[in-house]
Amino acid sequence: MLRSLLLLLATLLTAAVSTGGTTPCSPLDRAALLAFKAGITLDTTGILATWSGDDCCGGGWEGVSCAATGTGRVVALRLESQPRRYMEGTLSPSLGDLEFLEFLVIRDMARIGGAIPETLSRLARLEQLYLEGNALTGIVPGSMLAKMSSLRHLSLAGNRLEGTLPPELGSVPGLEQINLAGNRLVGGVPSSYRKLSSKLAYLDLSNNLFSGIIPEFLGKLKNLLLLDLSNNSFSRPIPASLGALQNLTDLSLSRNKIGGRIPPELGGLRSLNSLAIDDNMLTGSIPKPLFTMQNLWRLNLSRNKLTGPLPDFSDAGVSRSLQWLDVSRNAIGGQIPSSIAELHELERLDISRNKVRGVIPAAMATMGNLRWLDISGNAIVGRIPENFSRLAGVRHASFRGNRLCGQIPQAPPFNRFPAAAYAHNLCLCGKPLPPCRKIGSVSGGLTT
Ligand SMILES: *[C@@H]1O[C@H](CO)[C@@H](O)[C@H](O)[C@H]1NC(C)=O
Ligand SMILES: *[C@@H]1O[C@H](CO)[C@@H](O)[C@H](O)[C@H]1NC(C)=O
Ligand SMILES: *[C@@H]1O[C@H](CO)[C@@H](O)[C@H](O)[C@H]1NC(C)=O
Ligand SMILES: *[C@@H]1O[C@H](CO)[C@@H](O)[C@H](O)[C@H]1NC(C)=O
C-alpha cells in the first residue's frame, strides 16, 4: 500500500518535471527493473550503475528501451557484456512484470545463475528471448515457453541447463529460432516437435548430451537454414528426408554416433554451403550426389569408417564451388581420380590416413587455388609430379607415410617444407631430403 502510494507520488513528480509531453517511465516497470538490479550482487559491466533516477525511459538507463508511442512502458531490455566483464547474481522474478516487453536479451554475463523465473510466462508480447552465455541452471521451462504465444526467437545457449527438451516447444506457433546449444541437456527430440512451426529457420541443439535418433520429421521443416546437432550422442542413420530441406545452408552432425550410409538424397540440398558429418561411424562409400551441390564450399567427412574409392568428379557437373574437402581418417581405397583437378576452387584437400593407392594425378598441378594438401598415411606410389612446382600457393603439404619415390619438385614451396612432410616413404630424394643419386639407384631416385 505504502509502496504503491510512493510509486504514485514518484509518477506525479516525474510527470511534473518532464518536458516534451511524453510520459516518463512507468513506475511499475521502473520498480521491476530496480528489483532486477537488486538481484545482481556484482556488476563489472558498469551497465546497472546507469540505472538511477526516476526516468527509466529518458534517463539514460543503459539497455532499457521504451515504447516510441510514449506510453512509458519498457519494450526492450538488452544487456550484453564485453569480454571479461560480468554480472553475478540471479534473474529476479520481477522481470515478469515488464508486461509490454518484446525483446529480452541478457547475454554473456557469465555469472548470472539460478533458474529461469517462471514469471516470464506473463510476457505475452515477448518476441525475442535471449538468455545466453550465463550460468543458468535448472530445466528449460516448457510450461512457461508454451504461454509465450508471440515468441519467435529463443536462445538459452551456453548455460548449465539440465533435463530433457520440453515437449511444449512443439506447439509454440511462429517460432523461427531455437538455440539450446552448450547446455547439459539429455534425452531425444520429442515427437511433439513434428508440429514445430514451419517458419523455423534455425535449430541448434549442439554441444549437449542428446541421444536417440535424428527424427525423420525434421525434413519437413522446409524453411530451415541451419541445423546443428553436433557434439551429442545421436545414433542410427541419417534420415534421407533431410535431403528435402531446400533452403538449408548449414548442416552439422559432427561428433555423434551416427552409423549407416550417407543417404545420396543429401545431394538434393541445393542451398547447402557446409556439410559436416565428421567424427561419426558412417560406413559405405561417399555418394556421388554429394558433389553435385552447387553451393557447397565445405565438406567434412573425416573420422568415419567410409570405404570405397573417391567418386569420379568429372560428371559431377557442378560441385565447382567446393573449397574445403576433408575425407581424412577413413578407410577409403582406390586411386585419387584425376578428375579431382576439376574442383578448381579447392583450397584445402585432406585425404590423409586412408587406404588410397595408385599415383598422384599430374593433373592436380592445375589446382591453382590449393593452399593446404595432406595425402599422408596412404599407400600412394610413384613420384610427386614434377609440375607440382606450379602450385606456388600451397602453404602446407604432407606426403608422409606413403610409398613415394623419386625427386621432390625442386621449387618453392615444395623444397622448403620440413623433411617430416616427406618422411616414411620408399625413396624420395632432393631438398629438403638428401640429394638424389645420379646413377645406380634401382628404385627410381634419378634426377634425369
Ligand atoms: C562438446 O560439448 C560439451 C558440452 O556438452 C563441451 O564442454 C565440449 O567442449 C564440446 N566439445 C567440442 C569439441 O566442442
Ligand atoms: C526458401 O527461401 C526462399 C527465398 O530465399 C523463400 O521464398 C522460400 O519461401 C523459402 N522456403 C522454401 C520452402 O523454399
Ligand atoms: C573436419 O573435422 C575435424 C574434426 O572431426 C577437424 O579436425 C578438421 O579440421 C575438419 N576439417 C575441415 C576442413 O574443416
Ligand atoms: C603435368 O604433367 C602431366 C604429365 O607429364 C601432364 O599431363 C599435365 O598436363 C601437366 N600439367 C601441367 C599443369 O603442366
Automatic annotation (TrEMBL):
MF annotations from Gene Ontology: ATP binding; protein serine/threonine kinase activity; signaling receptor activity
Membrane topology: Single-pass membrane protein
Keywords: ATP-binding, Leucine-rich repeat, Membrane, Nucleotide-binding, Receptor, Repeat, Signal, Transmembrane, Transmembrane helix
Signal sequence coordinates: 1-20
Main location (coarse class): membrane
Pfam families the record matches: LRR_1 (PF00560), LRR_8 (PF13855), LRRNT_2 (PF08263)
Residue intervals of the Leucine-rich repeat-containing N-terminal plant-type domain: 29-66
GO CC terms, sorted: plasma membrane
Compartments (UniProt record): Membrane
InterPro entries the record matches: Leu-rich_rpt (IPR001611), Leu-rich_rpt_typical-subtyp (IPR003591), LRR_dom_sf (IPR032675), LRR_N_plant-typ (IPR013210), Plant_RL_S/T_kinase (IPR051716)
Identification of the protein by name: Leucine-rich repeat-containing N-terminal plant-type domain-containing protein
